[in-house]
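Lab notebook, bench 4. Still working through the backlog of constructs that have no structural model yet. Next entry is a single chain of 426 residues. Request: give me the structure tokens for it.
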Amino acid sequence: MFDIKAIRETPEAFDLGWSRRNIAPQSADLIALDTSLREKKTELQECQSQRNIASREIGQAKSKGEDAAALISQVADLKARMAELEEDVRQLSDQLIHKMSRLDNIPQDDVPDGDGEEDNLEVCKWGKIPELDFVLKQHFDLGEGLGMMDFEGAARMSGARFVILTKDLAKLERALSSFMLDVHTSEFDYQETSVPLLVRDHALFGTSNLPKFKEDLFEATTGHFMIPTGEVPLTNMVREDILAEEKLPLRFTAVSQCFRSEAGSAGRDTRGMIRLHQFNKVELVSITTPEQSAEELERMTGAAEEILRRLGLAYRKMILCTGDMGFAAQKTYDLEVWLPGQGAYREISSCSNTGDFQARRMNSRCRRAGEKKTRFVHTLNGSGLAVGRTLVAILENYQQADGSILIPEILRPYMAGKKIIERDDG
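Model written out:
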């Protein structure tokens, strides 16, 4: 969300930013709409002033026994006009909010221009791709071979894009969540949080999921939506707050179930755990001053990278181009983990700086000690990591020739010391 005053003052800068996202110039239409709105508001204020004056004159005329019919008629006309103007203001305000709320954030200067993922730039690679001398399997074949990953059973109760994990794979999923949270809270100063899975529409508006991406959400019949990511409740923890700048940054983390309709993914990753309607994710959210956010993005991305490094998973770090970056982001890093079964890198984390884009929608501000003036905070979010995809990566990278899975050493304390996952028909 943007400040219309800023668009009036620097329309060329906004149009240039949107053009980098392949969006046509918008400032002229927005300014024209805002001009009409302000003109209507000014006329409404003038009518209110005239009505107040006329109302006082009616009282004075009646107290003197004078005829006030003309004044009474004038007040009636003014009230009728005011009703028209109030409706005009409401409609114009709705139109302006509708247009503004659907416009993408402006990319930072150091974000590469491009049309899609083929134009993303590799920042670095880490780790050695495992050299396995047997026929490699994908995670779903491995999981089903272990008898611990059931897509058919899930489909019978819930339909496609759901999975049931049992035995050691269910325990491995839980171990991953615990390991990630332990690292982020003990080493990276994130505050562990338990969040609601159901939120109202204003919370989703605050994080830019609504109104533009409503089709991607699951909506309940109670006026709630199921969260698509822990970013929504974690970021909304500071909505309508004025925060002390000396206490920033604030850092929150949570593991939560996430629910996505995957409306735009028909035919993509239809088998396996890469793209599910329900999945677990450890989310990272930071609330900062404007001066802190650029450095905080590097720090947040580094925290997500550390999880991959300790698990011994090869990955590459990408900076997303303007055409592939998310709606609310000013700058985004993706971490892509190597999946031997697919022979490809796949996204496992996305870390973004949204600037004050979400803060304006949530009215989240900060203030320096001793000052009255406030300013909008900056918000950042990232996956630290997507738990299901991390489980996929472990299955494929630590697979053995007999279909068993070697458990990374750092996870073994979370698995009661177990070293290998084997089929268990007991």
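Notes after review: The longest strand covers residues 278-288. Residues 117-421 form a domain with the BirA Bifunctional Protein; domain 2 fold (CATH 3.30.930.10). Flag for follow-up if needed.
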